[in-house]
Design brief:
Strands 1-2 form a two-stranded antiparallel sheet. By secondary structure, the chain is mainly alpha-helical. Helices cover about 60% and strands about 5% of the residues. One of its GO terms (biological process) is poly(A)+ mRNA export from nucleus.
């Protein structure tokens, strides 16, 4: 509910503002240690990213509720935003977007980690689990760039990391050679969550981009996609074609309506 989200936001904001906060039966304050605030900035940004990886992966609609709190905290405490991006890019280079290349002297295990795979005891996680985590992280990012905390004290100020970053992400993505499986997955998640907001903001330019995806980018993706990876490609293809046909991007599931804040 909106009221619960406000309580969570206020508690985090109070902690970062140096006020004492009750947690786990005791009172804590960032002023209790010289590096207290830096530590909390770092851990909080990490927690937001972890929620993309854990919560959004299993409950896709949760992206917006987590994102709106993160966006509001970012607005009030810009350092959290810088650290959020750092944690996000380390876990999910596709949020940059960036495809790390295998360099001479880099071990395969280290390279898998750079690509975002979890490697535990030299065992690389399964592709399906990896793609689900990347989906969760991209969905959180796609939600964050379009939402504002409605009770911020900086009304009228630009979003600290708004839709223009989403437009830039999409343009950069389409300038890169696609990767099998990964590109289709993250592009679909990004468009499903952020397409409606980008359509409203960029209008005709957005539809030119969508046609470019269908006419030029999809054939390049299809070329590198093997038969057992066709699922994510077909899902993206059908979504893009359906949206172009009706010239509309659906409102994403979980998007916060004004009525939410009255709950």
């Amino acid at each position: 509910a909106g009221s619960q989200l406000r309580e969570i936001f206020d508690k985090i904001n109070n902690l970062l503002s140096g006020k004492p906060v009750q947690t786990g039966g005791r009172t804590v304050s960032v002023t209790q240690h010289p590096q207290g605030l830096d530590f909390v900035y770092y851990k909080l940004a990490e927690k937001f990213v972890n929620q993309g990886e854990e919560e959004v992966t299993s409950h896709r609609d949760a992206a917006f509720t987590i994102a709106v709190v993160a966006s509001g905290i970012w607005e009030m405490h810009p350092r959290v935003g810088d650290l959020f991006l750092a944690h996000l890019h380390k876990k999910c280079p596709y949020a940059v977007p960036f495809y790390p290349a295998l360099k001479k002297g880099t071990s395969m295990e280290e390279y898998q980690r750079m690509l975002g795979y979890q490697v535990i005891d030299s065992k690389v996680e399964e592709q399906d689990r990896f793609l689900k985590r990347m989906s969760g992280l991209i969905r959180l990012y796609a939600a964050l760039i379009q939402v504002r905390w409605p009770y911020g004290n900086k009304q009228g100020a630009p979003h600290p990391h708004g839709l223009r970053y989403g437009w830039r992400w999409l343009a950069q993505m389409l300038n890169m050679e696609p990767l099998a499986d990964v590109t289709a997955t993250v592009l679909y998640d990004f468009l499903e969550v952020c397409g409606n907001a980008l359509m409203k903001q960029y209008q005709e330019q957005f539809w030119k981009m969508m046609v470019l995806i269908r006419e030029q980018y999809m054939p390049r993706m299809e070329e590198i996609t093997s038969s057992d990876q066709m699922g994510s490609f077909m899902r993206l293809k059908q979504f893009v074609e359906a949206c172009i046909q009706v010239k509309n991007m659906p409102l994403p599931k979980g998007a916060l309506q004004s009525s939410f804040w009255r709950s």
